[in-house]
Amino acid sequence: MSRHIIENLQTIHSRISNACEKSNRDISEVRLLLATKTVDSDKILFALEQGENLIGENKVQELTQKCTAIAQMNPEVHFIGHLQSNKIKEVLKWVTCIQSIDRYELAEKLYQRLKFEKKEIDIYVQVNTSYEESKFGVAPENALDLIKKVSKFNNIHIKGLMTIGLFSSEPEKVRKCFKLLKSIQEEATALQLPNVDLKELSMGMSGDLEIAIQEGATIIRVGTAIFGERIYPDSYYWNEGK
Ligand SMILES: *Cc1c(COP(=O)(O)O)cnc(C)c1O
Predict the structure, then answer these.
(1) pLDDT of residue 242
(2) What are the residue ranges in the chain where pLDDT is below 70?
(3) Does the keyword Magnesium apply (predicted)?
(4) What's the confidence (pLDDT) of residue 1?
């Protein structure tokens, strides 16, 4: 098991560096986030011991369990799954960034809770760039409006955008999703809103990270290519409540 994780991490890091080279980007501009849904704490600990320091969880129950188990390594933890507002309080115990803010009501509840706890947090706005029914995220045409509204909450710092690209064997269709996210970043940045500093583009996963890096990704989220296939289908994580 450990040998596989070491080899897989090496492969991912060389894929990242090749993609950076191809697109004339510095390797320090792209961070690897370990997407750890369904992965046991001991495997996550092992990956952290290899020098990784950023993980993302999709479900609150797994987040709580695993963060307790891996606390000794003190990784940076982001939330990347669909978030229900009644779970905000628990999520805030563990994460420094929520990458999946996709609706105003959720941001408003987050604002209230942060105010109560006298805390602040970084968030990314999740955009459904593939327009697939099965995926969460604000529709691209509504993204600017959501960013404007959320920017009024002074304890929420909007630091980036997140998307899941289209699952397709046609690279140009996947690329279109990433280009769309980049264009929303540029439009939103031009508005010069308070609390908005959209440096991060979280896009690209096991199958499409090269395309994402070419299109400007600053964080890629990789699960399968490091930890192997998951037993649950992704729909279990992505279609909740739909
Ligand atoms: C599972 C997941 C990933 C990682 O996907 P892989 O194809 O396993 O690399 C990335 N982002 C999100 C939001 C996920 O849920």
Answers:
(1) 42
(2) 1, 238-242
(3) no
(4) 65
pLDDT at 230: 83
User: How far apart are alpha carbons 32 and 55 in whole angstroms?
Assistant: 9
Ligand 1 contacts (CB < 6 A) are: 35, 37, 58, 80, 164, 205-207, 221-225, 237
User: 221 lies in a domain?
Assistant: yes
Answer whether residue 206 is part of any domain: yes
Q: Cα of 110 to ligand 1 centre, how many Å?
A: 24
118 CA from centroid of ligand 1 (Å): 32
127 part of a folded domain: yes
Domain with residue 33: its CATH number is 3.20.20.10
Q: Do 203 and 181 meet the contact criterion of CB atoms below 8 Å apart?
A: yes
Tokens 């799954």 found at: 81
The pLDDT score that the predictor gives to residue 240 is 52
pTM over 0.90: yes
